[in-house]
Amino acid sequence: MQNYTLNRLSDQPILKTSDVAPAIDGFVVLGAFNPATCFVNGEVIMLLRVAEAPQPRPGHTRPGIIQIPLLEDLDGVPTLTVKEFPVPEGDYDPRLLTFDGKQYLTSLSYLRLARSRDGIHFTVDKTPFLFPSRMDEAYGIEDARITFLDNQYWITYTAVSEHGPAVGLARTTDFKTVERLGLILPPPNKDVALFPKRINGKYWLMHRPMVSEIGKPSVWLAESDDALHWGNHRFLFGGRGLTDPAFAWEGGKIGGGPEPLLTDEGWLICYHGADQTHAYTLALALLDKDDPTKLLDRSNAPLLRPELPWEREGFFPNVVFSNGWIRWPDGHANAGQIWVYYGAADSGVGVAELVRSQNNS
User: Fold this and answer.
1) Other beta carbons less than 10 A from residue 335's beta carbon
2) Three-state SS string across 62-78, please?
3) Which CATH number is associated with domain 4-356?
4) What DSSP character marks residue 127?
5) Closest by alpha carbon to 42, among 259, 333, 258?
6) Are strands 4-8 and 338-344 parallel, antiparallel or unpaired?
7) According to the model, what pLDDT value does residue 62 have?
8) Burial of residue 110 (number of CB atoms within 10 Å: 0-12, 13-18, 19+)
9) What pLDDT is stored for residue 95 in this prediction?
10) Do 360 and 4 contact (CB within 8 A), yes or no?
11) pTM listed for this prediction
12) Three-class SS of residue 135?
C-alpha cells in the first residue's frame, strides 16, 4: 500500500461542531464527527455522529455537579433522563466517568443526516435520523458505517450501554425511513462494516472484538447467510507496534474503518491505528477479492496523521478517524476519485482524496 497517499482537500474542517444545533431541548452539542458516507441520487449523504450533553444553566445546575444523559427503563419504556454526580477530583477522561463502580458516558450520541451536492458543503438535518430507543443503546449510538448491498443501505453502528459497546444493524432504501434490526454482535465489539457484495454466496463483515488481559485489539472477519446471524469468525490482522517500534503508531489500538472498496487489486481497507498516547492515524490494507481472509498488503506508515490545529485540539485531541468514504460514480465531474471523510479530535469533519500513484507498490 506504499503507492497510495491521502491528500487533504481543505486545510479547514468542512463541518464543525458549531455548525450543528442541538436536537435535544436544554442540551448543547459537544461534538459532530466520525461520519459514515455514501452517494445517493446525486448527493453525498453523511451520517454524522452528534454528541450532546445537558446545558449548564445558572440557578439550575449546582456547582461541583456533573450531569449525565442516558436512557432509563421507566415502566418498561426506555426514557431519556439526566443523572447527577459530583465532579471527580483531579484529571479525568472528559468522555467517561466511573461512579460507585459503574461507568457512564458524559454525553449521549446519536446519528444525524447531512447532505451535499459537491461533497464539501453540507446541510445538516434539524432532527436525528437514528436516536437511542432501546436499553442496549442507553448510553448512545456511535460511529456508523454504510454499505449498499441487495438494493438497500445497511447501517452498522456501535450501541453503547452499561454492558459495553455492542453492534447494531439498521437498513433503509431512501434515508427517510429506517428499520432497526437489533444487535448483531454482543459487547464488547465495535468498528463493524459490511462488504458491499456477497462472496461465495455469503455476507461478510469486518469487526473488532475488544480484549482485556490477553491479546490486543485486532480486525476480524465473519460470515452470514442472512446478515443477521454471524459466525466463522477469523482473525485478519492486528497492530504491529508491540513487536516493532517502527509501528508504534498502531501499537495501542487498531480497528477497521469504512466499508471495503473493491478494486482491480482486491478489497481496499481503510483502518485506524492509535499509539500509546491515544493519537489516532489512518492507514490501508488490501485483501484478496475472492478470499478476504488473505491479507495481500498493508501500509508501513500512516497515510494521515493529526497535524493541523483542528485535528490536534478538540474534545478528544490528536485524532483522525474515518468510518466513511465515497468513490465518485461514472458521469460525475469527480468520477473515479475516492474521498475519505474523517472525524478530527471528536470536534469536526475533514476530507482527503485517496490517490494511487502509477508506480508499482
Assistant:
1) 10
2) CCCEEEEEEEEEECCEE
3) 2.115.10.20
4) S
5) 333
6) unpaired
7) 67
8) buried
9) 84
10) no
11) 0.95
12) helix
At which residue does the C-alpha cell 442496549 appear? 136
pLDDT in the model for residue 89: 83
Q: What one-character DSSP code corresponds to residue 329? A: P
In this prediction, residues 55-68 reach a mean pLDDT of 74
- Contact call for residues 80 and 24 (beta carbons, < 8 A): yes
Chain centroid to Cα 25, Å, comes to: 25
Q: Cell triple for residue 108?
A: 449521549
Instruction: Output the pLDDT for position 87.
Output: 86
Domain residue ranges of the chain, discontinuous segments joined by +: 4-356
- Please state the separation of Cα 186 from the chain's center in Å: 17
Nearest C-alpha neighbor of 114 from the set 357, 344, 324, 356: 324
Q: Grid coordinates in use for 220?
A: 476480524
Cell numbers for 348, please give them: 469536526
Residue 161's identity, in one-letter code, is S
pLDDT band at 57 (very low <50, low <70, confident <90, very high): low
Share of the chain above pLDDT 70, in %: 97
Distance CA 130, CA 145 (A): 13
C-beta separation of 186 from 174 below 8 A = no
Asked if 31 contacts 18 with a C-beta cutoff of 8 angstroms, the reply is no
Determine the pLDDT at residue 234: 97
